[in-house]
């Protein structure tokens, strides 16, 4: 197998392949989401059928995805939740802490900064920025709101890998440009702006309504 080709197949020795296909990576992320929640709820084991019920991926596919990366499951017992979380995080190379800078201390930004939604998956909001001087200095969760002019210095000092945009659409592109210039390679965009970024930068746009359309498609077909 070429190391530059993405793979959908299991590696014979159960080792992590060099690169996953988008499909495998997307499914592993969905398993991880369910497993993280299950772990929080105190669940120790989970079967491929349960994973299937929560992710809507069929259980044969799940067993195939997971068997490709080593023997995690025991027949009749299911998978050990804790060990599967760390194995998948290793495969997705997301083990450890990843620092996030959040832009916009408005309704959405404050809700994100005060919740565990990112922390549960190893992302830490290390800074929150706003352009409105009346918000700068305000306490939000464990952070004090900084002025957006500090972006570059904070990205460097705090080793920020993800920029999260919770700003009005008109402000998003300029912030994306500043993040790219500061070396940030992942942008999580809550605004509806279609961001222009260089090819090495990944933009993920969050749109609950679009996710719902996807669910509706499967409901209707
Ligand atoms: N995808 C989703 O799930 C979802 C949900 C809610 C809101 N949104 C979107 O998120 C964005 C924020 O929504 P909101 O309700 O929090 O708005 P809001 O008006 O309450 O907050 C926006 C904040 O951004 C700040 N801001 C403006 N320009 C800035 C800049 N250049 N740098 C830093 N901060 C700047 C404002 O001062 C304000 O504090 C909007 O684009 C909205 O459409 C998306």
Tell me the count of domains. Answer: 2
The CATH class of the largest domain, by name, is Alpha Beta
The amount of helix comes to: 25-40%
Please count the helical segments.
8
Tell me how many strands there are. 11
List low-pLDDT spans.
1-15
Overview of the molecule:
- This protein has 221 residues and is of the alpha/beta class.
- The protein folds into two domains: 22-91, Arc Repressor Mutant, subunit A; 98-208, NAD(P)-binding Rossmann-like Domain (Rossmann fold), CATH 3.40.50.
- The chain is built from eight helices and eleven strands.
- It has helices at residues 22-40, 48-55, 59-67, 81-91, 107-113, 151-158, 169-181, 208-220, and strands at residues 45-46, 73-74, 78-80, 98-103, 123-130, 139-140, 143-144, 146-147, 160-165, 186-189, 202-205.
- A six-stranded parallel sheet has the order 8-5-4-9-10-11, covered by helices on one side.
- Helix 1 (22-40) runs antiparallel to helix 4.
- The two termini are 37 Å apart.
- NAD(+) binds at residues 104-109.
- It comes from Paraconexibacter algicola.
Topology:
Blueprint: H1 22-40, E1 45-46, H2 48-55, H3 59-67, E2 73-74, E3 78-80, H4 81-91, E4 98-103, H5 107-113, E5 123-130, E6 139-140, E7 143-144, E8 146-147, H6 151-158, E9 160-165, H7 169-181, E10 186-189, E11 202-205, H8 208-220
Helix pairs in contact: 1-4, 2-3
The protein binds nicotinamide-adenine-dinucleotide (NAD).
Overview in brief:
This protein is of the alpha/beta class and 221 residues long. The chain has helices spanning 22-40, 48-55, 59-67, 81-91, 107-113, 151-158, 169-181, 208-220; strands at 45-46, 73-74, 78-80, 98-103, 123-130, 139-140, 143-144, 146-147, 160-165, 186-189, 202-205. The strands form three sheets. The protein has a six-stranded parallel sheet with strand order 8-5-4-9-10-11, covered by helices on one side.
């Amino acid at each position: 197998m070429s190391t530059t080709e993405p793979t959908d197949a299991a590696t014979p020795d159960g080792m992590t392949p060099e690169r996953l296909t988008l499909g495998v990576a997307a499914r592993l992320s969905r398993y991880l989401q369910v497993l993280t929640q299950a772990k929080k709820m105190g669940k120790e084991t989970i079967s491929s059928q349960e994973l299937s019920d929560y992710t809507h991926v069929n259980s044969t596919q799940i067993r195939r995805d997971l068997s490709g990366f080593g023997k995690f499951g025991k027949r009749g017992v299911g998978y050990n939740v804790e060990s599967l979380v760390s194995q998948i995080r290793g495969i997705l190379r997301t083990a450890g802490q990843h620092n996030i800078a959040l832009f916009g201390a408005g309704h959405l930004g404050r809700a994100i900064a005060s919740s565990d939604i990112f922390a549960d998956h190893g992302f830490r909001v290390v800074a929150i920025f706003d352009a409105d001087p009346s918000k700068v200095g305000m306490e939000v969760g464990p952070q004090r709101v900084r002025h957006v002019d500090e972006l570059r210095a904070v990205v460097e000092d705090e080793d920020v890998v993800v920029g999260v945009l919770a700003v009005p659409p008109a402000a998003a592109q300029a912030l994306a440009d500043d993040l790219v210039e500061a070396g940030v390679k992942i942008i999580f965009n809550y605004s509806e702006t279609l961001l222009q970024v260089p090819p090495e930068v990944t933009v993920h746009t969050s749109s609950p309504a679009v996710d719902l359309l996807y669910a509706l498609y499967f409901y209707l077909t």
